[in-house]
Amino acid sequence: MQATAYTYDAGTRTGSVLLDDGTPVSFDAPAFDAGGLRLLRPGQRVRIETEGLKEGLRVTLVTLQTF
């Protein structure tokens, strides 16, 4: 699934993304670390993997979108 980076805190390696419908979904440090990234800037297009549905939606991986 694709999303746009919305917030990112380098100290905690946590943040949030916006899904294409505008829904914000937060991610934790393990999801960020799983993608092997060092930094994330708001506005970057990212690829995410999730589990759960609606209010229980959880990001399990954040990585850069490649074409």
Characterise this structure.
The structure is a single chain. With 67 residues, the protein is mostly beta strands. The chain has one helix at residues 29-34, and strands spanning 2-9, 14-19, 24-27, 45-51, 58-64. It has a five-stranded antiparallel sheet. β4 (45-51) and β5 form a beta hairpin. The longest helix has 6 residues, at 29-34.
Order of strands, main sheet, comes to 3-2-1-4-5
Helix count equals 1
Helix content: under 10%
Largest sheet: 5 strands, antiparallel
In terms of structural class, how would the helical and strand content be classed? mainly beta
Average predicted local confidence, pLDDT: 94
Report how far the terminal alpha carbons are from each other.
13 Å
Q: Would you identify the regions where 5 or more consecutive residues have pLDDT less than 50? A: none
- Summarize the helix and strand pattern as letters: EEEHEE
- Assign an overall shape: globular
Using only C-alpha atoms, the radius of gyration works out to 11 Å
**Strand tally:** 5
- Strand percentage, roughly? over 45%
Explain the layout of strands and helices.
Elements: E1 2-9, E2 14-19, E3 24-27, H1 29-34, E4 45-51, E5 58-64
Antiparallel strand pairs: 1-2, 1-4, 2-3, 4-5
Structure at a glance:
The chain is mostly beta strands and 67 residues long.
What brief labels describe this structure?
globular; 5 strands; mainly beta; 67 residues
